[in-house]
Design brief:
single chain; alpha/beta; seven-stranded mixed β-sheet; four-stranded antiparallel β-sheet; 15 strands
Length: 302
């Protein structure tokens, strides 16, 4: 673990103790479907200048790289229909701003469902980078996608090529998000846009639940608000074009099973009830207001 003495969003050194949530990643590792709510890899500090929140001590790069390489979960495989529906909604927003349906890059694409939907919608080229051997292998072997197993910040990629770069539920995992934005900017073609989806730590739900918010989990090292993600993007030459909530579609059973992160008996009882009512497999996309999407355009190359 290493200290980060400045705010990752605005650069201020005025970081103050906020949430006592230090723990470990547990047996599940750094998978996206963990139910270890209220546990992070360090306590959380808050920037008194911009309101951004981040871990007081960041995990070492090698620790994160190893954990993400080993990450494996079949939960999203079973939820393919909802993942694809979410992808279609997000691609529609990207396409409203991208110069063309040309080349799209998904950094941290997990199983690749967004890229598969982009292919169906006529995007000319789809490329993904995913550190998880399990997830990137699924994308290549099951979906036939050009998804490369590698580190998001160092995998070799051409500059000025992509009409859209996607980081869906990714930037909150990065100890140095500014470096990621610089790399994204270098890969965007003229007029290209970057799309981000991430938890909103400034939302009413997040503020109400505090340390028990379901996005306080071991894999998250940054906790952005709308203000702090905008600040970070502007500091790295981006102009925000659109910001909105971004609910995800899952089955009713999946959402109810998440209650198990607070009470396993309650979660099991709710799932049984949904199955009994024959609604467990129904797709559901409730908007809790605590997940946001941001679309931004990089500074034109001189």
């Amino acid at each position: 673990m290493s200290d980060r003495s400045k705010c990752a969003a605005c650069g201020s050194p005025d970081l103050r103790a906020h949430l006592r949530v230090a723990g470990d990643m547990g047996d599940q590792g750094l998978i996206p479907t963990t139910d270890r709510f209220g546990t992070a890899l360090s306590d959380i500090v808050r920037c008194a200048t911009c309101g951004h929140m981040q871990l007081a001590r960041m995990p070492a790069d090698a620790e994160l790289e190893a954990a993400y390489a080993d990450a494996a979960s079949g939960d999203y495989v079973a939820e393919e229909a909802g993942q694809r529906e979410t992808a279609r909604r997000m691609l529609a927003r990207i396409e409203a701003h991208a110069p063309q349906r040309g080349a799209i890059l998904d950094l941290g694409c997990w199983l690749g469902f967004l890229l598969a939907e982009a292919r169906e919608r006529g995007w000319r080229e789809q490329v993904g980078i995913e550190p998880s051997a399990f997830a990137s292998g699924y994308a290549r072997e099951r979906l036939g996608l050009d998804v490369r197993t590698g580190d998001l910040l160092t995998a070799p990629l051409p500059e000025h090529r992509f009409d859209a770069v996607v980081l869906g539920d990714v930037i909150e995992h990065l100890p140095r998000p500014g470096e990621a934005l610089d790399r994204v900017a270098s890969m965007l073609a003229p007029g290209g846009v970057a799309w981000f989806a991430l938890p909103d730590a400034g939302s009413r739900v997040a503020r109400t639940l505090g340390a028990r918010w379901w996005s306080v989990i071991p894999s998250h090292v940054q906790y952005f608000t709308r203000n702090s993600i905008t600040t970070l993007l502007q500091r790295h030459g981006f102009t925000v074009l659109e910001a909105a909530t971004a609910p995800k579609a899952f089955s009713v059973e999946y959402y109810l099973s998440r209650i198990g992160g607070y009470s396993k008996p309650a979660g099991r009882a709710l799932v049984r009830g949904a199955r009994g009512a024959r609604v467990a497999e129904r797709m559901w996309a409730p908007d809790f207001g605590d997940r946001m999407m941001v679309i931004a355009r990089g500074r034109p190359k001189s």
